[in-house]
Amino acid sequence: MPDVQSMVAEFVNKLRKRKIEGSQATAKCTVELLRSVISHQRVPHANQAAALIDAVKAVGQQLVAANPVELAVGNVVRRVLHIIREEDLSLTTAAMAGLDLLDASDDDDIDNCKGIGYPAMSAAVVAAAARSTLRPPSLQTLLEGTPESATVPYTSSSGADSESKSKSADKSSLTRKLKHDVIEGVNQLIHEISGCHEQIAEQAIEHIHQNEVILTLGSSRTVLEFLCAAKEKKRSFRVFVAEGAPRYQGHLLAKELVARGLQTTVITDSAVFAMISRVNMVIIGAHAVMANGGVIGPVGVNMAALAAKKHAVPFVVLAGSHKLCPLYPHNPEVLLNELRSPSELLDFGEFSDCLDFGAGSGSLQVVNPTFDYVPPNLVSLFITDTGGHNPSYMYRLIADYYSADDLVM
Amino acid sequence: MWRRTPSFILDRTSTSPPMAADTTRAPIQNPDSISAYYQTRAAHHGVITSEWLSQAQAAVGGVSDSGDEHPVSSLTELGNEKSFNVIEEFNSWRKQPDLAEAVAAIRALAAVIRASEATTMMELEIELTKASDTLKSWDTTSISLTAGCDLFIRYVTRTSALEYEDFNSAKSRLLERAEKFGEISCKARRIIAMLSQDFIFDGCTILVHGLSRVVLEILKTAAQNNKLFRVLCTEGRPDGTGVLLSSELSKLDIPVKLLLDSAVAYSMDEVDMVFVGADGVVESGGIINMMGTYQIALVAHSMNKPVYVAAESYKFARLYPLDQKDMAPALRPIEFGLKIPTKVEVERSARDYTPPQYLTLLFTDLGVLSPSVVSDELIQLYL
Q1: How high does pLDDT run on average in chain A?
Q2: What PANTHER family does this protein's entry cite (chain B) (predicted)?
Q3: CA B307, CA B208: separation in Å to the nearest integer?
């Protein structure tokens, strides 16, 4: 355990000092850390899922507090929690099915079960009830039983177990199985995060056609791979890159694209509106995608989105599934923006006399926000590693990837 | 839809035959069908026009007859008595101001189960379907009634197939769930209130239209959480919902300002968000609500203000109106305070349809959703 504590402390430090760049790297490191936490966590025999969930939540809270702007951290913590709940549920239903078969042969057990107040229902009903508590609430389950029924399997299984030794042997294998399944699920998640660029790039060929002009802003690795994948498949197209002041990362992207053989044009951010009428499609990478379909992207994308809307140009956003956040932008927990150092804009030496330091003669202030928010009605399409989606479809992906109980950590 | 021509002269002459068709529904009452649902809402709000009162007198005398005449003639004597009971039962539940419409419907159906002498699930289902059809045909304008009945019937047909061999235990379970539905409805309102707390920030101005119990719950919870906000409520003619809502809110020490319905665009600048309830949520994701909601949503949309709808999930209905006239007409009497010459027509529709592109988010007990979720949920339930 002390080993894990020091690992967590080290990672929290790295996050706080912004030493890890990019949401993919951050997400991957976070998941790997959580995997170590889970494998080192000692779990009791009963209610092991709850112990795992508490451990992961505790670590998750520290990580999110260290870097609240990087929403990917919170996202993957919630993904891991969802995995734990899912694996626990599937194991419980399997156990119930097995337990029911054993019960049927044993009269005492049935009497005992009835004694606990547990009606003689078959495993299917219990499984359905338990599954309905994990699934997001829906109209189908509106009239069905309340969540108390989910806790009944626990008490009845532990009650029945105290009877026979054979069942206790099953229980300990159940313990090992839960951790094992969870770690398998977490490994799958890591694999998914690592492979998101390839998955998204595979879809490039469907969206980029011959002789098109694509506009992009700033520099995103996902966009780079997307465009290169289309180039590989022998599409010829041109790219306009808006430079993305004040960091000018668009220059780096332009260099890379030229190196891969694409015809590239560099324009200033202010020229986006002037050039948009010549563009067929705008493709940008996102920092995070919110639950309503809104996008948090590098500063300047809102302007590009408005320009695209005005000229009816499709605005496509590329985002790996680890960027999908179940929170809404109005949520006070979500920090929409981070202010960077003003030295990127203005040289301190030249302006030191007019800068406003609180007390003194100067009254010049410099604001350097990192991100921009694009409302969902400006976005035409989201391309994630699971395919292309409408902004209004985001709720579905959120329901698949996250549990409602984990939204508040 | 096909009557959108300036030839209203022709329309006027052609409306007389269709009116005759309406009278087959209620031969003893007035030719124009007054919507019972909106009358009940008005009764809850305490606004009773003299016209409505006389109608109600006639209706109370007429319900026993209409109960017999409405159902299809193939019903037996026993069936007639049942349909009479169902409608009476439903009306008695509906009168309670705090009870949602769908809860009243499901309680009425629960009464049918209790009074039923069926011995198999199939028989019980058939009785329930008959009773629900009677209820639905009695008041075609109430969407939550239809949706509530459908939901309950769906639940019955689905769970009855499951593991219960014992009919009596199945019946008692159905009764228990039906009774619990009232609690579910209250719980739904609380969940919605909790979900919407994040959207109300300190110092915001909320515009409210109509008197929705769910929206009232939301505002109450926000006040209890010591949020500082103020509310602008529209007058809500002809129901006078604005006055009632403002009196409720002032009891909670929330600063309230009353607006004329026509003053909405004038005040929309200082509004941060619009909150409305819904009489029904249709499959496209749009809502059917008190007259005036569409207007407010249009103004809010043109000024980029978010419109939030608070509705429980059992109000989702399998309707898809393409325009305002595409629904069953729900008329209600409107008093102007002055005598109106008989040659002057009055637009008496009680509700309008707001298309989904003017709505920002739906707050339901299934979570905070975008309008496209509604069709998804309905498909899962009905197909």
Answers
A1: 81
A2: EIF-2B GDP-GTP EXCHANGE FACTOR SUBUNIT ALPHA, TRANSLATION INITIATION FACTOR EIF-2B SUBUNIT ALPHA
A3: 10
Nearest CA in chain B to A403: B367
- Long-range CB pairs of A397-400 (<8 Å, 24+ gap) are A397/A321, A397/A324, A398/A291, A398/A324, A398/A326, A399/A136
Distance CA A335, CA B109 (A): 49
Per-residue pLDDT, A111: 42
What count of other Cβ atoms lies within 10 Å of the Cβ of residue B273? 21
First to last CA, chain B: 29
User: Do B174 and B113 touch, CB atoms closer than 8 A?
Assistant: yes
- ipTM comes to 0.72
According to DSSP, residue A332 is labeled T
C-alpha A326/C-alpha A344 separation (Å) is 32
Residue with tokens 């379909």: A293
Within chain B, strands assigned E span 204-209, 229-234, 256-259, 273-276, 280-281, 287-290, 307-310, 351-354, 361-364, 367-369
In chain B, what's the furthest Cα-to-Cα distance? 66
Q: CB A139 to CB B378 under 8 A?
A: yes
DSSP code, position B262: G
Q: What is the DSSP letter of B118?
A: -
Whether the link from the prior residue into B97 is cis, omega within 30° of 0, is no
Query: Beta-carbon neighbour count of residue B195 at 10 Å?
Result: 20
Cβ <8 Å between B372 and A392: yes
Measure the CA–CA gap between B207 and B123, rounded to whole angstroms: 50
Cβ contact B381–A328 (<8 Å):
no
**Are the beta carbons of A136 and B184 separated by less than 8 Å?**
no
Q: d(Cα B374, Cα A40) in Å, to the nearest integer? A: 43
> What region, left, alpha or beta, does residue B16 occupy, with left being phi > 0 and alpha being psi -120 to 50 degrees?
alpha
- Candidates A140, A392, A404; nearest CB to B370: A392
Is residue A293 helix, strand or coil? coil
CA geometry: angle A33, A34, A38, nearest 5 deg: 120
The confidence score (pLDDT) of residue B96 equals 75
Q: Compute the C-alpha angle A217/A220/A224, nearest 5°.
A: 100
The structure tokens listed for B315 are 């109000």
Lookup: tokens for B118: 């069926």
pTM of structure:
0.77
Max avg pLDDT among A374-388, B47-61, B125-139:
A374-388
Residues of A with CB under 8 A from a CB of B: 121-122, 124-125, 136-140, 142-144, 291-293, 328, 330-332, 376, 390, 392-396, 404
Q: What single-letter amino acid sits at A73?
A: V
pLDDT digits (tens, 9 = 90+) for A226-248: 999 999 998 889 999 999 988 89
Dist CA A384 CA A391 (whole Å): 12
Residue A357, SS3 per DSSP:
coil
- Three-class DSSP category at A119: coil
Q: Any bridge partners for residue B363, and if so which? A: B310, B368
Please name the member of B155, B162, B365 whose beta carbon is closest to the beta carbon of A137. B365
Q: Do B201 and A330 touch (CB under 8 A)?
A: yes
Angle between helical axes of B50-69 and B36-44 (0-180°, round to 10): 130
What SS3 class is residue B211? coil
Instruction: Kindly list the distances between the CA atom of residue A110 and the CA atoms of A114, A122, B152, in Å, as whole numbers in the listed order.
Output: 6, 12, 32
Six-digit token string for B84: 């009479």
Pick among B155, B370, B373, B381 to test the A interface (most A CBs inside 10 A): B370
Closest Cα in chain A to B161: A125
